[in-house]
Each structure stands twice: as structure tokens, then as C-alpha cells.
Design brief:
Rossmann fold, four-stranded parallel β-sheet, 15 helices, 51% helix, binds iron/sulfur cluster
Length: 329
């Protein structure tokens, strides 16, 4: 089975139904010696002042000899087109996919039809695969629910299982077994006692110890916004594939994301929000809109290269958590 690299969440139902294995290049990059990969891309000519995720995706694609990638040219990253072109001169074949900014149903359907053609697969076959994946997603939604409602899951575990839904770790059956095992394990746990409840919004963190540091300070992330979207929280069994990817908030305008964030802040009784922004990323500007829209304390954290939290970021987090602690007294 051929491995297909993906740069963000795409309709993997089509990839799997076409007999291929989706590999989320972001997850692959972070699971390796990621800082070395960033440097590798810089040696190849990527500028220092460029997003580390892009550099990592570039280097890991070549290192792992991924021959085909689906590049989301609209709805994910303003750098993807350039990434696609730099990889194509290295011989990597790219399959473009675009989420229409205005959430136009017909345009999205057209994009899916192009993908179906590229993978030589029928709509019905993709729908059958969706049935299989929805069953797994449902279990991951249970993990999410057990995070905020029962206090049985750490912020990192919540992040990990939801983010893994982007490619089902390349093997849905194996991933489902891992999810089942985890659900069994946590049924024996006592609820975690963290006083402050946090929301994490924005692209996934490049820091490796963010969640554990937060928990060492008596707080816990009970909402991972974008990661939760990767697990398709609104998808219904038997629902049309196009409809499912229209409900997915991340690739369209920021306002649908804000509606979702506000709703989850209320339901999950969140005390404060960490907005993570990646250095040199266009999403950075969304901080301005988010700060105007949310009436809850927000800490904007910026990360550049993969690795542990730096001292300055730790101090900022500590101060933010102390302030929230004072408010919850
Ligand atoms: S963090 Fe921003 S610039 Fe970097 S890959 Fe993601 S969307 Fe693109």
C-alpha cells in the first residue's frame, strides 16, 4: 500500500478507500529528531525566519522518501503552495486539495470528486470507509468527554488521541485497538485534581512539554480546539461526506472557530485560554480578532522551534496561572 503524506486534515476516507495509507507529516515530523530536521531544511536553503512546521514537513518528506503528498492549497497554510513546489522539484508528486473559503458546498464537492478521481475510488466506497472511521471517532469523542466532564484524561492525552484522528496513525484498526486499551486503562483511574481549567486554541504546539508543565502548576487543559476538530466532533454516522467536511471549522474563516470556542468555554467551564501562535505564521494575526471576541483571560504563547518550553515562556505561564488561581478563590 502506498503512503500518502498529508499536510493537514483532508478527507482521509478517500485515501483509505483508494487503498493508500495517509501519513500526517506534522505528526511524523514531531515524532522524529525534529530540531535536526528543521536544521536540515535550513541547510537546503529554507530561511531562518520561516515556519518550523513547514521546514520539518519538507525535511521529513524527503527523509522518509514519501513519494506522494496531498497539499492543501487553500484553507490551511499560506506557505503550502511554495512547500508543494519545493518538494515537486525533488521529485515528490503532489495532489492539490482546496477548502473553499466561503464554505461553498458545490466547490467542496468538486474538490472531493477530484480527489476521488486521483485515488480511483467511488463515492460509495469512501462513504463505507467513513462508517468505519466514525466508529473510531466516536470513541475518541468519549475520551474528550472524559477529559472535561470526568477529569480522567490529561491535557496531553486529550491532545494526542484527537490529533491522531487526522491520519488514524496510518492504520485505523491498530489505532482503534490503542483507543480501546486507553479507555480500559482510564476506567480504573481516580479523577485528576487540577483546580484551573484551561482551553488551548490555535495550531497544535511545537513545544514538547507544554501540557506537563501546565499540570505541574495545578492546571489542566480540558479543551484542545483544533485537535478536537481533527476528530470531527460534529460528524454523524451515515452523514454525507461533504457535509462532514463543511462542519469542520479549521479550514474556513476564523468566525466559525470563535463560535465553537465560545460554546466550549461555556460547556466546559473554562477559566482561561492559551492561544498558541507559531512564529512566522499568518494565523498570528487572528490573535487580534480572538482577543476582541472572547471575554475570558487569554495568554498568547508563541513558539518557534521544536523542543521544551524556554524560561521566559514558563514565567509567563506561571504568572497567568497565578492570576487565574486568584480569580477562582
Ligand atoms: S503554523 Fe502556520 S505557517 Fe506553519 S504550517 Fe501551520 S499554518 Fe502554516
Amino acid at each position: 500500500m502506498q503512503k500518502i503524506g498529508i499536510t493537514t486534515t483532508v478527507p482521509i476516507e478517500i485515501v483509505l478507500a483508494g487503498g493508500c495509507i495517509p501519513i500526517d507529516l506534522n505528526n511524523l515530523f514531531l515524532s522524529q529528531d525534529s530540531l535536526r530536521l528543521v536544521h536540515q531544511a535550513e541547510i537546503q536553503g529554507f530561511p531562518r525566519n520561516f515556519c518550523a512546521w513547514i521546514k520539518g514537513i519538507y525535511a521529513v518528506t524527503l527523509q522518509e522518501k514519501i513519494s506522494h503528498i496531498i497539499a492543501v492549497t487553500q484553507g490551511d497554510c499560506s506557505n503550502t503552495q511554495a512547500l508543494m513546489e519545493t518538494l515537486s522539484i525533488e521529485g515528490v508528486k503532489t495532489i492539490p486539495f482546496a477548502y473553499p473559503y466561503d464554505r461553498d458546498k458545490d466547490l467542496l464537492k468538486l474538490q472531493m470528486e477530484r480527489l476521488l478521481k486521483a485515488f480511483n475510488c467511488s463515492f460509495q466506497k469512501a462513504m463505507d470507509t467513513k462508517g468505519r472511521l466514525d466508529k473510531i471517532r466516536q470513541k475518541v469523542h468519549t475520551i474528550d468527554q472524559l477529559t472535561w466532564n470526568e477529569g480522567l484524561v490529561t491535557g496531553f492525552e486529550n491532545h494526542f488521541f484527537q490529533i491522531s484522528c487526522s491520519d488514524m496513525q496510518g492504520d485505523p484498526e491498530k489505532f482503534e485497538m490503542r483507543v480501546d486499551k486507553f479507555l480500559e486503562e482510564i476506567s480504573l483511574r481516580a479523577p485528576l485534581q487540577n483546580r484551573i481549567r484551561l482551553g488551548y486554541i490555535g495550531v497544535p504546539p511545537i513545544f514538547t512539554d507544554l501540557y506537563s508543565f501546565i499540570e505541574s502548576q495545578g492546571a489542566r487543559v480540558v479543551f484542545n480546539e483544533v485537535q478536537r476538530q481533527f476528530a470531527m466532533p460534529e460528524c454523524g454516522q451515515g452523514e454525507d461526506l461533504v457535509k462532514q467536511y463543511l462542519k469542520y471549522t479549521y479550514p474556513y474563516d476564523v468566525f466559525a472557530r470563535i463560535t465553537d470556542i465560545k460554546k466550549q468555554i461555556r460547556i466546559r467551564q473554562i477559566d482561561g485560554v492559551i492561544h498558541y501562535v507559531q512564529s512566522f505564521c499568518f494565523h498570528r494575526l487572528e490573535d487580534l480578532i480572538i482577543r476582541k471576541a472572547l471575554s475570558i483571560p487569554i495568554l498568547t504563547l508563541e513558539g518557534e522551534n521544536p523542543g521544551k518550553l524556554d524560561a521566559r515562556t514558563k514565567i509567563r505561564l506561571e504568572s497567568f496561572l497565578q492570576m487565574l488561581n486568584g480569580r477562582t478563590d
